[in-house]
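tl;dr need the bound structure. longer version: we got a ligand (9KV) that a collaborator sent over and nobodys looked at where it sits. i said id run it. heres the input, straight from their email, havent touched it
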Amino acid sequence: KKKVSFTKEQQALMKVIIDAYNKHQIPQDVAKKLLQDKYSTEENFLLLTEMATSQVQVLVEFTKNIPGFLSLDREDQIALLKGSAVEAMFLRSAQALNKKMPIGHTEVLEERIRKSGISEEFIKPMFNFYKSIGELHMVLEEQALLTTITILTPDRPYVKDQPAVERLQETALDLLRKMCVLHHPQEPQYFARLLGRLTELRTLSHYHAEMLASWRVNDHKFTPLLCEIWDVQ
Ligand SMILES: O=C(NC1CCCCC1)[C@H](C1CCCCC1)n1c(-c2ccc(-c3ccccc3)s2)nc2ccccc21
């Protein structure tokens, strides 16, 4: 069994990120809502915009706890948030679907999402991503670090000081690499597989504007915050 040791700084970083990640869960559990009732495509679209709006606010609070984030150039902070919000949303959605639920609940939830109003062409890539995340059986630390690494992506549009972001991302990557060895000692390629999901996530997120525009509702209304983040309207 490979010995994994963390430096004092890494232990402190993990604690800060885990506390922030736990604190910034989505207020009310969207999966529970979806399991309770069948909603019309209009109601589902409204639910998505409400959940997404609160998730962006939660994401902003989470990033403020990432050591070093607030020391970045303020415009770069905005560019990182804008560039990662949709990906963070799909990561959270994947975790919501892959959470342990009573027998048969996951199937009902899947069905409700398939029939929610999203146009057919996006269902397959979206569920392929959700399944590939589920197969990894990530522990909480890995989920929190993966979200952190997604936020700290240096090559987002309009980021000016990329090296500063790279330095922060590398710290989180070093920690995630050790976490993977600790929690998945039998899978030497686990860390590489995890990072591979970020490529799939970026591809899926490219479709977000089309996914919204093709949602089967007559009127696509967004909150001002989502207009900013989602490049819509
Ligand atoms: O509420 C949701 N997700 C919350 C977002 C914030 C973070 C918590 C999760 C939606 C619901 C889908 C069904 C109809 C209501 C909304 N959801 C999705 C998405 C499908 C498409 C999505 C999207 C995002 C951005 C742009 C274009 C499209 S998100 N996958 C889920 C998997 C499991 C549980 C919910 C899930």
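gonna send this back to them w/ a short note. The chain is about 70% helix and 0% strand.
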